[in-house]
Amino acid sequence: MSRDPSAHDTAERIARLALTDPRRVGLPGHTAAPSADGARVRLLGQGESYRVWRLDVPGHPPLVVRVARRAPEDLPRPMREEFTALGLLPTASAPRPCC
Q1: pTM here?
Q2: Which pLDDT value is given to residue 2?
Q3: N or C: which terminus of the chain has fewer CB atoms within 10 Å of its end residue's CB?
Q4: Is 20 exposed, middle or buried (CB count within 10 Å of its CB: 0-12, 13-18, 19+)?
Q5: Using H for helix, E for strand and C for coil, what is the string for 15-77?
Q6: For residue 76, with 0-12 CB atoms within 10 Å meaning exposed, 13-18 middle and 19 or more buried, which class applies?
Q7: How far apart are CA 94 and CA 83, in angstroms?
């Protein structure tokens, strides 16, 4: 996890969502992390527009969560175009939109 306070806050929010609203982070809706401590979140990297996190929840495959660092209108490419392109990937590696 980064020492940047905003990154720390984001990691805590991802872990909390895994517990309280698992679908928002790509987990099955009926399954939540057993406790906030049961979800491990770590920063994988960041670019100009996104930070990328790895979410590990016991009993589930690891998930990669991408969080925008800019307002949607300030992104260099509309998110819709990215989602369209990502949808062309094989099912096992394609994203699962959550909301």
Answers
A1: 0.71
A2: 42
A3: C
A4: exposed
A5: HHHHHHCHHHHCCCCCCCCCCHHHCEEEEEEECCCEEEEEEECCCCCCEEEEEECCCHHHCCC
A6: exposed
A7: 9
